[in-house]
Request: fold
Amino acid sequence: MTETSFDFDLIVIGAGYGGFDAAKHAADHGLKVAIVESRDMGGTCVNRGCVPSKALLAASGRVRELADAEHLSAFGIHAAPVRFERKKIADHANNLVATIRSNLTKTLERAGVEILYGIGRLEGFQKVGLREKNGVDRIFTSRDVILATGSDPFVPPGIETDGRTVFTSDEAVNLEWLPRWIGIIGSGYIGLEFADVYSALGSEVTMIEALDRVMPTFDPDIAKMASRNLLDRRDIDARAGCIARKVSPGCPVKVELADMETKEFVEELELDAVLVATGRIPSSNALNLESVSVKTVKGFIPIDDSMRVLVNGDPIPHLWAVGDVTGKLMLAHTAAAQGAFAVENILGNKKVINYQNIPAATFTHPEISSVGLSELDAKSLSSEKGFKLGIVRSYFKANSKALAELESDGLMKLLFRKDNGLILGAHIYGLHAADLIQEVANALSRGQSVIELAEEVHTHPTLSEVVEVAYKQAVKQVENQ
Ligand SMILES: Cc1cc2nc3c(=O)[nH]c(=O)nc-3n(C[C@H](O)[C@H](O)[C@H](O)COP(=O)(O)OP(=O)(O)OC[C@H]3O[C@@H](n4cnc5c(N)ncnc54)[C@H](O)[C@@H]3O)c2cc1C
Reply:
């Protein structure tokens, strides 16, 4: 029960992962909570992101495995030509979305959270306006407000989408048809995951990347190995240093390519479809942030590490923001962690978040993952702080489990301080990299050194021994033991 004259103790605007975790955590701790959602409970992750894309990757990954006659015959297995039903793969994704959305809604209801459907906005300090679908406008007061409105796909100028032949991940997750030839603009994790899906299901893929190498946001050594396996070996035509400056939907879709540097015309492609995977922009326009004098940075809401919203660098009392709309490591588990931490702070338990300890993964086959600093950032830190940077590489081809699976293409790169063995970061490409990174993320968040980690016994034969080997190599280089 609210102890004040406010309608609620907490109103959360946006019911994605960030908003969901915040609302549930607050209700579980006895606060009177409402959550406002304008579209679908569960937000991007559940409806248009992690959940459907991983369902498509699960199905298409199996198709790829069963269709890989060479790989199977190395085990002595000869399968009949693989057949699949696109509609049933799409249904699998849609059904999973519906189940998880419904579970999440019930969880909030059971926790006592009031769900308000409509577009939420601020109406000054500790006031939230709600525009319902029927046009009714209501104002609520709340002691604390959390903004968790997430993000939407970014479509660069010059690209026209029609949702059918030129589309973003919002539509791609529905897998309504399988283009014979698809262009994917952007080689970040979303572009790579869909390249994995489409190429497994038989589409020819051309990947267009504006920067001078594909997978520019990944560790360069990991990107080199991953792009060789995930793009080159699958005959995916990757065009780095090219921008799609004009994309016109239709049949065919026309894509005008220009050189990124010179801006000169390169070529016009005629494709069946184009997926625009060029990043995401914050959804903050409708929030009426002016009513509390908050100025966004390119649409992102500025926050401190306690998730308090900032105006000119100073926190505003009782106003918080979490998730993609804050622009910090835009991932579902970051949003959820920020949501729970914001509520802990509301409850008076001081909590600050450390983004360095949060792992990230790309669910291609095989996967890519990372945590902590990039090699470049680790190098700058080492010269700034005056310690020597240690870098070791552990290869999947030396791992018994990976060899047994006939999946031994893979690499882990571990970055650590040579003076005390503390871990700075890790980057992995290989089978189950998304699971493997968690061990390093946990060690990083506990501030552990490779001196103690190298003594931890790992199960044999498991892929986790790739991490063990990295720790053991690293400890040999630590100076003060
Ligand atoms: C294809 C794809 C795959 C992805 N895969 C992964 C993955 O594997 N792992 C991972 O960690 N992350 C993944 N992500 C990223 C993840 O989906 C986001 O980081 C996460 O959803 C962010 O959560 P959020 O709560 O900040 O925002 P969102 O999930 O975007 O939710 C915000 C909610 O707020 C609502 N809203 C917006 N404005 C208003 C308003 N004014 N009033 C009321 N409601 C409003 C929206 O309708 C939405 O429901 C993926 C994203 C995409 C697109």
Observations:
- Residues 53 and 194 are 8 Å apart (CA to CA).
- The pocket of flavin-adenine dinucleotide is lined by residues 13-19, 36-40, 43-45, 48-50, 53, 119-120, 148-151, 169, 190, 283, 286-287, 323-324, 330-333, 335, 363 (CB under 6 Å).
- The mean pLDDT is 97.
- The chain has three domains: 8-59+84-153+281-353, 166-278, 357-475.
